[in-house]
TrEMBL record:
Provenance organism: Pantherophis guttatus
UniProt protein name: Histamine N-methyltransferase isoform X2
The keyword Lipid biosynthesis belongs to this UniProt entry's keyword annotation: no
Subunit details: Monomer.
InterPro entries: HHMT-like, SAM-dependent_MTases_sf
Gene name in the database record: HNMT
High-level lineage: Eukaryota, Metazoa, Chordata, Craniata, Vertebrata
């Protein structure tokens, strides 16, 4: 059997992602950042503070790759509590129809979103870019975020430059990606060339974004969000959870049964090493640290 990219089977990808969320502190560390740090970063935007204190009652938020909306809704709830009474117009760019449906279900279930108006765009960031460039509707956003999505664009620097250009003066663009110091970056460096090729996902980390920003002159701040993932099940032969985690780690469908034995053994041995995982008792925790990068207009 040949190895196939995880992205060739969307429902399998979603299944692995759900196991990853259950076994990692991915969402907890984002929520921590959203609740403790984000409000002060956004409210330090002079244009926003000035317009709200001048009686303006609307702000515009753009979510790029919003997925099924869990993190977006946390951000919006936080903004709503920061700016009570202000209408928050939220546009969501998301190419996957199933994700948009899940997002709409989350909105329907949430009880306190009455001041938030949603518009979903079923398209990629590039399709949105081409459409908006044609319509010349630029410079209207008070806050834009791209959370765990820049892996999926063809041209990361051009995408950042385009969305940065849509911000109002003083507004902020938030990017969250795996940290260059995480085990993801090490795993991709070593094993990327031996895993199934796909043109849908770039092996990029926050280090690549920071390098691009350093060369571009854009001003930014970077925050480390500590996170880990319990990968102990990967070391139990036949464990379904372990197999799904291995698929997620290697971005491969059914890695355990399709990878050449030498590759599988080497990778599993590496995952136990301290460069990749911290051992606590009989458990192994993979370093899933993220970086939040805030770029100012
Ligand atoms: C890992 S998920 C992150 C979802 C959400 N932001 C979160 O953190 O929970 C990445 C999302 O980006 C979307 N995506 C993939 N390629 C994209 C593209 N070219 N433009 C915009 N979104 C994209 C996927 O459909 C998916 O919903």
């Amino acid at each position: 059997m040949t190895m196939r990219s995880l992205f060739s089977n969307h429902s399998h990808y979603v299944e692995t992602f759900q196991v990853f969320l259950k076994k990692s502190t991915e969402h907890q560390c984002m929520l921590d950042f959203i609740h403790k740090k984000l409000p002060q970063l956004i409210s330090s935007c002079p244009e926003l503070v000035e317009s709200i204190s001048n009686g303006k009652t609307e702000i515009n938020v753009l979510s790029v790759g919003g997925g099924s909306g869990e993190i977006d809704l946390e951000i919006l709830a936080r903004l709503q509590s920061e700016y009570p009474g202000v209408i928050i117009h939220t546009d969501v760019i998301e190419p996957n129809a199933e994700q948009i449906n899940s997002y709409k279900e989350c909105v329907a279930k949430a009880s306190d979103l009455k001041n938030i108006k949603f518009t979903w765009h079923k398209e990629t960031s590039l399709e949105y870019e081409n459409r908006i460039k044609d319509s010349k509707e630029m410079g209207k956003w008070n806050f834009i975020h791209m959370i765990q999505m820049l892996y999926y664009v063809k041209d990361m620097p051009a995408t950042i430059r385009f969305f940065h250009g849509l911000l109002k003066p003083g507004a902020k663009l938030l990017i969250i990606l795996v940290s260059g110091r995480s085990s993801w970056a090490k795993l991709w460096r070593k094993y990327g060339p031996r895993l199934p090729p796909n043109d849908l996902c770039l092996y990029i980390s926050s280090a690549d974004v920071e390098e691009m920003l350093d060369g571009s002159g854009l001003k930014y701040q970077s925050y480390e969000l500590l996170s880990d993932m319990d990968i102990t099940d990967c070391f139990t032969e036949g464990s379904k959870t372990g197999e799904l985690l291995l698929d997620f780690l290697t971005e491969t469908c059914n890695f355990s049964n399709t990878a050449p034995l030498d590759l599988k053994n080497e990778l599993i041995e590496d995952l136990k090493k301290p460069e990749y995982s911290e051992r606590r008792g009989d458990k192994y925790f993979f370093n899933n640290t993220l970086n939040a990068i805030i770029i100012e207009h």
